[in-house]
Amino acid sequence: MDNTLNLLDPIFLNSIFRLVTPILLAALGGMVCTRAGIVNIALEGHMIMGCFGGVLGSYYLKSAIGGVLVGMIMSMLVALIYGILRVNFGAEEVVVGLAVNLFSTSLTVFLLRTIFKVTGTFSSPDLKGLKILELPIIKDIPIIGPLLSGHTIVVYFSWICVALTYILFFNTTLGLRIRGVGENPEASKTLGISISKIHYFAILLCGAFCGLAGAQLSLGNVTMFVEEMSGGRGWIAIVASLLGQAHPIGVFLASTLFGFVSSLSFRIQGLGWPQEFTEMLPYVITLISLVIVYIASDSKLKRPSDEILKMKKIGTTNASLNLPEKK
Amino acid sequence: MQNAIELKNICKSFPGVKANDNISLAVKRGEIRALVGENGAGKTTLMNILYGLLQPDSGTIEINGEKCEFYSPMDAIKSGLGMVHQHFMLFSELSVVENIIYGMEPQNSGFIRKKQARNEVIELAKEYNLEVDPDAKVGNLPVGVQQRVEILKALYRKAQILIFDEPTAVLTPNEQIGFFEMLRKLAANEKTIIFITHKLNEVMQISHTISVMRLGKITAELKTAETNTQEISRSMVGRDVLFDLERKEINSDNVVLSVENLNVFDKNNIHILKDINFRVCEGEIVGIAGVAGNGQDELIRAIVGLSDANYIFGKIELIGSQLNHDSIKERRSKGLSYIPEDRNSVGLALQATVAENLVLGNIDDPEITRKGMLIKEGIRKFSESLRDQYLIKTNNIDEEAANLSGGNLQKVVVAREMNHQSKLLIAEQPTRGVDIGAIEHIHTQLLDHRSKNNAVLLVSTELSEIISLSDRILVMFEGQIIGESAHDEAIEESIGLMMAGVIPQGDRSNVNEN
């Protein structure tokens, strides 16, 4: 095996967006919720339902696209439960989020055993995976070709989703209302906007995005279902959505960073680095990027202006007194 | 002429209170009606009923002679009502245009027609002479302009009747003049205006007619031209109110608070306070006048110890001892007490009981705690005595503070801080949102504190309050003290000019020339 880290290796380049996509799609879902004023921490749970639904649909409908749709529907069903608890019953969103995550993980394990009669992993030759599509012309460009081409339809669609959410937010009435509800629900209410409807829309759209993310995992990256196969990507997606300032472009960039680091960690694992260390990498990068964002936004850590430095030098003792006389 | 609004026999009860008791009110088109009354008189309830936020128990609403039933603000908006809330209902992250069109966006199958929306807003602003930058982010605009956005929002929804809830509380004297002009213009345009206020001089200036409310009833309907402030306040309070306060002559040179060369850079390293120098002596009330946001907050926070600024340079001394690095607790024990502007989040713990709020800051008292355990009996005695002394209206000191009205909450803060018996009392907007009876009480307390040879530093955007209470007045503008004026020479007009940054020529009291 090659002992050096070749970042231009086509196989490595091709793996990047395969790993970006699940994070990106889930992060877009989290972003929509954030904009509507919901901190949705149930992305992980939605995603695992998408993984399972993808395999379920693909197996019984004998079609990968059918699988993707079933994955989205199952994720949206869990999102609906989240919505009922959060919107109708007004439950605390952290509690509901954790509950949905635990529920979804257990439900997929249960369904795996009852429907497919296996534990741990399900794979079958009858399982239809998503086809790899090559982009004409682009596929022949060096570096860019393997990076952008040779992916499943879900990967390409995720890029379109970035543009679609951008248009949604900044060009449509619905988007304006979502942003308004997130920022000042009280004001939205006095202008006749139904906050519940906007929240339901955001929660269900988030479910759909996470379902797509899950289906890409179980039908695109691999063609099988493994218990807990979402593997923390839903949590990384939350960070990506925060790091991207809940802006479609920012979320895209943040997700790409995390996807890139994930594929890099696989790569250096191949170089013989200990697995424990390489698996840690995406999370280390998450922490580092949060710290960087914090530092960049805290002006106290920047170099103070000359005016401040001058005052520091003078101190308080030499300062000329200029007190008004008491009358 | 037909009445634009006619409320007939409106009744509304809340558990234990009759907030509106058989109220009838008729306002003609093009009329400016002032609705005055103390806090808790039922003005807000009545306006919330008119605006569809509350439904009356009985009674009817007629708009332009047509009977209406409002189940939500949307119904009221459809009937041509618009409300400018005291705390603006705006989206600070959105642009002016987005704020105005929100919920009524000109659209093409779901897509906003951005150009059309922008043009409509510009047209509307021009029509009513309400200048705004359509693309500015609302959060970055000064409050006066934000208010214009609120008004445009109502006009964009074709409002014929505009309700203003204490609209001038946030405006500078100059902005107020502009605001009154705009009200007159709106009224001349056949708009009907109801405006709720506490300030009687404004009522006299702007309104055509006045409705006075007290304890859920309308106690007087007056024509502005035929009445005076004394008569209005009598109907509001039910007795004559003291407007001229007596003050004892005190002449002491003992400095209580001295601030020297204070320079503050906020958390974005912006030079927010520049070379602040002043002293407050025993038996003196020093007023800090200025439009909100000219550094008063930062100054007070630096003195009290609540500052989140990156750099604070200069010297702050309380009775000869440096405060700069002291904790808030140390400052308080050295003789500082503080009535904060934001009583709901800084001054009080609303979820706690009245008694708990009263003992805050006194918990080291052996009557109140011993070895870390609360002494229930001591707390009860302590807080009941404060309640009686400061006339806090509550049946039960173990009631949640959030249940009290604004004026009574302020009395809780005042009681606690006055009882602290400190040499220096800092009072920040002590009477904001408080009714006339409570204002009188708080003012008497401040003067009382002064007459005991203590010092008071009073910050208020209410010029009349500053002028009637202070021995000396400092005017702040853009982080500097740009002028000073003694009590006997305080002229509202010249201070008003200084608040707008205009330094009177040859003013002998100008700090910069000393």
Detailed description of the structure:
The complex is a heterodimer of chains A (327) and B (514). Chain A has 327 residues and is mainly α. Chain A has one domain (10-303): ABC transporter involved in vitamin B12 uptake, BtuC (Orthogonal Bundle). Chain A is built from 13 helices and two strands, in the order ααααβαααααβαααα. The radius of gyration of chain A is 24 Å and the shape is globular. The termini of chain A are far apart. Mean pLDDT of chain A is 89; it is low at 316-327. Chain B has two domains: 3-237, 3-Layer(aba) Sandwich (Rossmann fold); 255-347 and 420-513, Rossmann fold, CATH 3.40.50. In chain B, α14 (406-419) runs parallel beside α15. Chain B is of the alpha/beta class. Chain B is globular and about 65 Å long. Chain B starts with a strand and ends in a 15-residue tail after the last helix. Classes of the chains: A mainly alpha (327), B alpha/beta (514). Chain A binds chain B through residues 171-174, 176-177, 179-180, 183-184, 186-193, 299-300, 302, 304-305, 307-308, 311-312, 315-316, 319-327, and chain B through 53, 72-74, 77, 83, 85, 89-94, 98, 101-105, 107, 110-112, 114, 253, 258, 260-261, 263, 265, 267-269, 271, 275, 277-279, 281, 310-311, 313-315, 472, 484, 486, 509, 511, 514.
